[in-house]
Specification:
Blueprint lengths: L12 E5 L2 E5 L6 E4 L2 H5 L18 E6 L6 E8 L2 E7 L5 E4 L4 H5 L5 H7 L5 H10 L4 E2 L8 H19 L1 H7 L6 H5 L6 H4 L7 H22 L1 H22 L11 H14 L4 E6 L2 E5 L1 H17 L7 H17 L1 H7 L1 H6 L9
Antiparallel strand pairs: 1-2, 2-3, 3-7, 4-5, 5-6, 6-7, 8-9, 9-10
Helix pairs in contact: 5-6, 5-9, 9-10, 9-11, 10-11, 10-13, 11-13, 12-13
């Protein structure tokens, strides 16, 4: 009769779990999965992450014995980058899982592909792309749905800009949608708080904004849903424009661009996708960094620009949009966790990302 590896002299009893016949200790409630049973319980017949993965090195030995062959069980992390521990027979007869870690162990089924994407390494292609464009490369999970709103926003912004470049009359008409702080502070032309978000002053202005919207918008739209994402985007952009008006209420300089709205997305992204990575380049050295590091550097640049009085950039709009995104992200954090279980799992301390 098989004995419990943890309680030593307690006999294991046969039970059924996830359509598999396994052994359970009636005392500590730990579970013994024979070879193939855990993978079958995961519905994972091909990837074989645990039992058949004999190449996985143990990180320490235990004082527990295999119920089948009495060999000393080795302790392993269930997946690379997922530090849930299981005890495994070195001969491959089975694995032992403590009851309190069972739910975390079963969650491994959903982590293979996300961990591969998060832990993907930089390459000469990513280096060359960032060196030439000075734009970061994103490492994040694949969205569950197509980001129709993100794509539509990019398309609309691009079409408006192209139309204003080829038709001077359209350009003059579109500039009536620019936000002028003096007008807003007196309660006039309030619609420009929205329309100004779709206008850009040059190709680089447009490309920079649309690129960031492209790389982070898809995941945020996936987390929020199409309608909520659009409302969050426009809402952060509106708050950004108001923040710029607050600091320069008498300014007659037109303020345009989606930067404030996208800065709001930065705040949401920082709070919700903590295990994602963005590359940062110092001269020729490219490094994956956590979102909070990347956006802290970005925030510092904006604070410095505002403090030194640099012209041509609405720094306060960026900062205001970012703060709005942080506040909104915090208020919606529990809702996002409930509606996006994978995101909550990835943000746990058990998941370790290589950067």
């Amino acid at each position: 009769m098989k004995q419990c590896p943890q309680c030593r002299h307690k006999a294991l009893k046969i039970t059924r779990y996830q359509d598999q016949e396994i052994d359970v200790c009636p005392s500590c409630r730990g579970l013994w999965f024979e070879a193939g049973e855990f993978d079958a319980a995961l519905g994972n017949d091909e990837k074989e992450p645990v039992i058949e993965g004999k190449h996985r090195k143990a990180h320490e030995s235990t004082d527990m014995s295999c119920p089948d062959c009495d060999a000393t069980l080795d302790r392993h992390h269930l997946l690379k980058g997922y530090e849930v521990e299981i005890e495994r027979c070195p001969a491959g007869h089975g694995i032992w899982i403590e009851r309190e870690e069972l739910d975390e162990a079963l969650a491994a089924e959903h982590l293979h592909e996300p961990l591969e994407r998060l832990n993907d390494k930089t390459s000469w292609r990513t280096w060359l792309f960032q060196f030439v464009t000075q734009m970061p490369v994103e490492y994040n999970i694949r969205p569950r749905q197509r980001p129709w709103v993100t794509w539509s926003l990019i398309l609309v912004n691009t079409l408006i800009f192209v139309a204003s470049m080829v038709d001077l009359r359209f350009a003059e008409l579109s500039m009536q949608g620019a936000m002028i702080p003096e007008q807003i502070s007196t309660g006039n032309h309030l619609t420009t708080l929205l329309t100004s978000q779709f206008l850009h002053g040059g190709w680089m202005h447009l490309i920079g904004n649309m690129y960031f919207l492209w790389i982070i918008g898809d995941n945020l739209e996936d987390a929020l849903g199409h309608r909520r994402f659009l409302l969050a985007y426009l809402g952060c952009g509106t708050v950004a424009a108001l923040a710029q008006t607050l600091i320069e209420p008498s300014s007659t300089i037109p303020v345009i661009g989606a930067s404030g709205a996208i800065a709001g997305l930065f705040g949401l992204y920082l709070l919700w996708f903590r295990k994602a990575s963005l590359t940062f380049m110092i001269f020729v050295y490219q490094k994956k960094v956590a979102p909070w590091v990347f956006f802290l550097i970005w925030l510092g640049i904006n604070v410095f620009g505002m403090a030194t009085g640099a012209q041509g950039v609405a720094y306060m709009a960026h900062i205001g949009g970012f703060v709005c995104g942080l506040v909104l992200g915090y208020l919606l954090l529990n809702w996002v966790r409930q509606n996006y279980p994978l995101l909550q799992l990835l943000n746990s301390d058990k998941v370790v990302v290589q950067r």
